[in-house]
């Protein structure tokens, strides 16, 4: 099934739009259960492009089939391909969009406290720009608070995502981000890195 589509996807070298479109087409033509079975089959591929397709499918059905969200967290987050991790972030955002960002707060909290840095980054990166998302658009302080909780994040790659996400928010809500940053103890190097990234736009205004 979808052999021609899979062969085309294997050849994609840049971008994810075509893969996401293929995933949405599959989801529109099958039940959630059938889609999940296809996703698990595709995820066995040696080609990261096909595993990315699987992640997109899971993201598209995750608000209706919780098993697929668990699969993203427990299986896809272990993938060694950075491309698949980028899709994981997009898949998590799709879940939040479909379920509603406010309704998704408990899942965000769970993922942000997960032991796997890829799971934590799926939230911090997937929801960028945070204050462009419903709920956080009206409650920027909530987005800042969630991100600030990861200021001493052990993974550098997650710290960069956190700092850049706060920097994004500062473009429209500079006073709120500044107020949060003023409360930080920046003596630890990890916090210092997030702090410097977060206030980059603020410093450029001076």
Automatic annotation (TrEMBL):
Name of the protein: DNA alkylation repair enzyme
SUPFAM superfamilies for this protein: ARM repeat (SSF48371)
């Amino acid at each position: 099934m979808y052999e021609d589509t899979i062969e085309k996807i294997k050849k994609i070298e840049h971008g994810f739009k075509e893969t996401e479109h293929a995933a949405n087409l599959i989801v529109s033509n099958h039940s959630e259960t059938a889609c999940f079975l296809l996703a698990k089959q595709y995820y066995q591929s040696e080609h990261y492009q096909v595993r990315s397709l699987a992640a997109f499918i899971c993201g598209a059905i995750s608000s209706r089939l919780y098993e697929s969200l668990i699969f993203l967290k427990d299986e896809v987050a272990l993938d060694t391909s950075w491309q698949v991790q980028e899709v994981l972030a997009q898949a998590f955002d799709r879940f939040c969009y479909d379920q509603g960002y406010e309704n998704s707060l408990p899942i965000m909290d769970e993922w942000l406290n997960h032991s796997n840095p890829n799971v934590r980054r799926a939230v911090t990166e997937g929801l960028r720009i945070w204050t462009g998302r419903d709920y956080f658009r009206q409650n920027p302080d909530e987005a800042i608070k969630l991100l600030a909780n990861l200021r001493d994040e052990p993974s550098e790659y997650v710290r960069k995502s956190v700092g850049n996400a706060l920097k994004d928010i500062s473009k429209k809500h500079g006073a709120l981000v500044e107020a949060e940053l003023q409360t930080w103890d920046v003596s630890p190097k990890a916090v210092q890195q997030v702090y410097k990234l977060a206030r980059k736009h603020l410093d450029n205004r001076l």
